[in-house]
Fold this protein.
Amino acid sequence: MEQTNVPRPAVPPALRAPLAAAAVVAGVVAVALGVLFTGDGAGSVLDQRAYEALRDSVREPSLSFDISWAVGTAGDPAWAAGLVVVVAAICFATHRRRLALLAVAGPAATGVLTTVVKPVVDRTINGDHLSYPSGHTALITSLGMVVGLLLVDRFRLGRAGLPLVFGLAVLCGAAMSWSQTASRVHYLTDTIGGFCTSLAVVVAAALAIDRVADRVNAGG
């Protein structure tokens, strides 16, 4: 039976090194893309080809259009806040208080960072809409990572759970990327930047939560 009185880490010790390494790489990619596309208003060749390949997949009316709309709506502030509350509540109810904190802090931090970065990069789409990095993609990716960490801890997967954390992050990020790119709300590279930003921020936040909580517990 699972012990509920033992504080559970946000990141299992076996995953800390590989996730930290991935976060560093993701952060470098996010910064590099931001520098590369500063002031851009047309999109790269990759962005144009991605849009052309995906635009027909969300033609109205169709099931794929409805799915794309639902996925995109999940990243809107009101719906996203609801998802954050649900994930945080599940973590708290299963005695993962650090993950519950991460479920709130991770999306909040990515939301603030993507909002602050947009005018700095000054990349636009559809006229004057600031697009880099994609906040929708970052937010949904962050929730996917939290759910992945919750499942890894719940089933005691240890290092074997690394593909699950990455897999859920990629799945959530890819779904939002498809929705945002096909709907011409973001360039594909905006969503890649959002994914990388989320990975870097959520892992950093999780490790910080564990470090602070461990010090507090040791001091107590």
